[in-house]
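Appendix C: a fully annotated inverse folding record. The material below is reproduced so that readers can follow the format used throughout the book. The structure is listed first as C-alpha cells, followed by the designed sequence.
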C-alpha cells in the first residue's frame, strides 16, 4: 500500500513557517531595542511619552499668585541641571526643588537670561536678557541607563491670567503640558469652566479641576469662581 506524501509535505511546510516566524520575531525585537534606547535618550514630543504633571494651587485672588508644583523625569545622560524658563508676564519667587528618588532637597536659584548666557548654561529654550529662569542643581549627573525624578515648587504671580472681576475669581491661562490640575482657594466654588475637566472636592474642602491636554499645542483653560457665603 502506497503512503501519501501530503502529511510529510504539510509538516515540512509548517516547520519552515515556524522557523520563518521566529526569524521575523527576532528581527522585530532587534529593531525595537535600538528605538527604545533612543527614546530613553531623546524622548519624543508625542503626548504618550510625556510624564510631567503640573499642579496650580491658587492663592487669594487679590495677590494674583499661585503655587506651582511640577514633577519631571531627567533622562539625558550627563545632565547636571534642570532649567525652568518662566513664562513671559509671570514673576517667580520662593523656588524649592526635591529629588523624588531620595527625598533630598536640591539646591536651586533664580537667575536672569543674561546671567544664563554669561555662565554659558546649556539652556535650549529661547530666552531674553530679562527672562527669569529657575535653575535646579541635580544631586549627581544622570548616568547611563538611569533616570532622575525631581519635583519643583515655585510661586508665580501673573495679574493677566489670575485676577478678580467684580466678586468673581478669574483664571485664564494656556496649558502646554499633558496633565494639569488647578485647585481653587479655600472657600471658593466653580461657576464657569470653558474646558472639559474632572472636578472633585479634596479632603481639605478645596475644589480641584483636572484638565488633560492631549494635543501637541496649548489648550486655553478659562474658569470663574465665587466665594461661598456662610
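Designed amino acids, in order:
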Amino acid at each position: 500500500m502506497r503512503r501519501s506524501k501530503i502529511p510529510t509535505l504539510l509538516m515540512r511546510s509548517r516547520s519552515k513557517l515556524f522557523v520563518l516566524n521566529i526569524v521575523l520575531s527576532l528581527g522585530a525585537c532587534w529593531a525595537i531595542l535600538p528605538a527604545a534606547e533612543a527614546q530613553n535618550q531623546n524622548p519624543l514630543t508625542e503626548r504618550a511619552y510625556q510624564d510631567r504633571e503640573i499642579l496650580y494651587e491658587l492663592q487669594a485672588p487679590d495677590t494674583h499668585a499661585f503655587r506651582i508644583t511640577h514633577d519631571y523625569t531627567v533622562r539625558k545622560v550627563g545632565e547636571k541641571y534642570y532649567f525652568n524658563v518662566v513664562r513671559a508676564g509671570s514673576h517667580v519667587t520662593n523656588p524649592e526643588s526635591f529629588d523624588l528618588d531620595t527625598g533630598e532637597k536640591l539646591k536651586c536659584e533664580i537667575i536672569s537670561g543674561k546671567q544664563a548666557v554669561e555662565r554659558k548654561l546649556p539652556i535650549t529654550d529661547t530666552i531674553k536678557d530679562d527672562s527669569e529662569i529657575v535653575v535646579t542643581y541635580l544631586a549627581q549627573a544622570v548616568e547611563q541607563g538611569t533616570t532622575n525624578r525631581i519635583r519643583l515648587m515655585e510661586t508665580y504671580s501673573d495679574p493677566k491670567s489670575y485676577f478678580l472681576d467684580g466678586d468673581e475669581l478669574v483664571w485664564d491661562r494656556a496649558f502646554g503640558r499633558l496633565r494639569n490640575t488647578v485647585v481653587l482657594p479655600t472657600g471658593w466654588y466653580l461657576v464657569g469652566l470653558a474646558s472639559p475637566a474632572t472636578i472633585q472636592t479634596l479632603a481639605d474642602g478645596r475644589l480641584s479641576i483636572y484638565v488633560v491636554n492631549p494635543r501637541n499645542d496649548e489648550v486655553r483653560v478659562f474658569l470663574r469662581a465665587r466665594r461661598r457665603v456662610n
